[in-house]
Amino acid sequence: IFQKPPVLLLLHTLSDNEGDWSMLPLLSHSFGKNSSWIVFLEEETNVKMTKLVQVLAKYDKNKEWFLGKPLHDAESTIIHHYAFAENPSVFKYPDFTAAWALSIPLVVRLANKVKDEPLKSDFTIDLKHEVALYIWDNGNGPHLTAVPELCTEPEDSPQTSHCATTLSGPPLCGEPVNKEDLFVAVKTCRKFHSERVPVIKKTWEKHALHLEYYSDHADPLIPTIDLGVPNTERGHCGKTFAILKRFLSSSVPNTRWLVVVDDDTLISLPRLQMLLSCYDPSEPVCLGERYGYGLSQGGYSYITGGGGMVFSREAVVRLLDSGCKCYSDDAPDDMVLGMCLNALGLPVTHSPLFHQARPEDYSRDFLAHQVPISFHKHWNIDPVAVFNKWLKDDSVAKTSDGLNKSVKTEL
User: Taking every annotated instance into account, which residue ranges of this chain make up the domain Fringe-like glycosyltransferase (predicted)?
Assistant: First the structure.
């Protein structure tokens, strides 16, 4: 490895399989068989190669090793299907941003296991946790081994002299998109007009220039708009497709981006405006937190709705021109959209800064190196306090470890 640089593979180039981002199906590929280790990196992971080689040399390459920076849950969480409910902190899973590594003997065994025994769940929700569970295999496989040299500190931090990996901020792509370029659609219903809508008005509504509330009841005091779609207890597909059609109509301002959120979504629009500077609205962009359904059996990816779904105008045009529609008003809107995007061959773009659940549902160490864009759900929390702690920007954004860093350098 000192004579020549390691082989660098980009997941999206290895095959046309939509599920490649879930990684486990990829292990049956022949890559890496002449190597000792496969190291998985995120886009923002920096690597000091000499240091990484020295770290890996501490471990016997002929044995099965699963290496990483461990995360754990402080309490059982819905995103991990309430696994290890009696003692959630006992199970460790890797922080992908720090890099994680598998020895080739483990890769070979896992490749055979994937062929014979696909992932038990149809859903891919939090990949890092699900990969760790699959490798652990109810105690039959290796635990994650903590490697202190795999770090998530910023590359310019004085605490990184021992680190083989560090983090760089995502690229700064230019000026934030203008408020005028965003149209925000909030899905609500009559029973939540007095409970959830006031939270939005107290927190993030003021950052939206173009925003409409869509409900099953027109309330002029909010105001809400009745799209003529009956409220459903779940799914909301009919309402979402009515929003897509309205977005392209002359009833609303002609904007480049559509943001669709639930009435219990907490979101930082200024941070979103910064992130969107990295994307071209003339392309069919669909952005948010990516989940998967049936990925090991030719399924599809989708943007989970609670964290917010962001569409370029071109994406909405293509979706509606395709004839894609709901099979019922209460079908799951995010999954139906995922099926349609998959059929059209349009990618779903993942950002880990969107969150389908509450801050309490994520590992503290995972959130410590993020400046998040959204969270979802008001259950057992004070949503205004959560917004103020995690999403409110004065002159700076506060990361959870208390460091004050400018939003621009973080996003």
Answer: 32-111, 176-382
Q: Strand 93-94 to strand 45-47: parallel, antiparallel, or no bridges (unpaired)? A: unpaired
Give the sheet arrangement for strand 300-303, strand by strand.
123-124, 290-293, 300-303
- pLDDT value, residue 405: 42
Helix (H, G, I), strand (E, B) or coil at 247: helix
- With a CB cutoff of 8 Å and minimum separation 6, the contacts of 331 are 235, 237
| Residues 150/69, Cβ–Cβ less than 8 Å | yes
Which helix (H) or strand (E) covers residue 107, if one does? helix 104-116
* Domain 14-167, CATH among 3.90.550.50, 3.30.300.30, 3.40.50.1820, 3.10.580.10: 3.90.550.50
Q: For 184, phi and psi rounded to 5 degrees? A: -110, 125
Query: What count of residues does the chain have?
Result: 411
3-state helix/strand/coil string of 66-104: EEECEECCCCCCHHHCCCCCCCHHHCCEECHHHCEEEEH
**C-alpha–C-alpha distance, residues 325 and 305, integer Å:** 17
Whole-angstrom CA distances from 117 to 8, 91, 109, 127 are: 28, 22, 12, 17
From residue 256, give the alpha-carbon distance in Å to each of 161, 186, 333. 44, 17, 21
Joined tokens for residue 325: 């529609």
Mean pLDDT by 10 residues, the chain (411 residues): 75 82 81 84 95 97 98 95 94 98 94 81 92 95 98 94 92 91 97 97 98 96 93 84 97 98 98 96 98 90 97 98 93 96 96 97 96 96 98 57 38 43
Instruction: Please identify which residue in the block is written with the tokens 């020549």.
Output: 4
The per-residue DSSP string of 15-41 comes to -S-GGGGGSGGGGGSSTTTTSSEEEE-
**Domain coordinates in residue numbering, the chain:** 14-167, 179-392
Q: 179-392: which CATH number, 3.30.200.20, 3.90.550.50, 1.20.120.910, 3.20.20.140?
A: 3.90.550.50
Residue 4's CB is within 10 A of a number of other CB atoms, namely 6
Fold: same for 14-167 and 179-392: yes
286 φ, ψ (degrees, to nearest 5): -130, 115
pLDDT at 264: 98
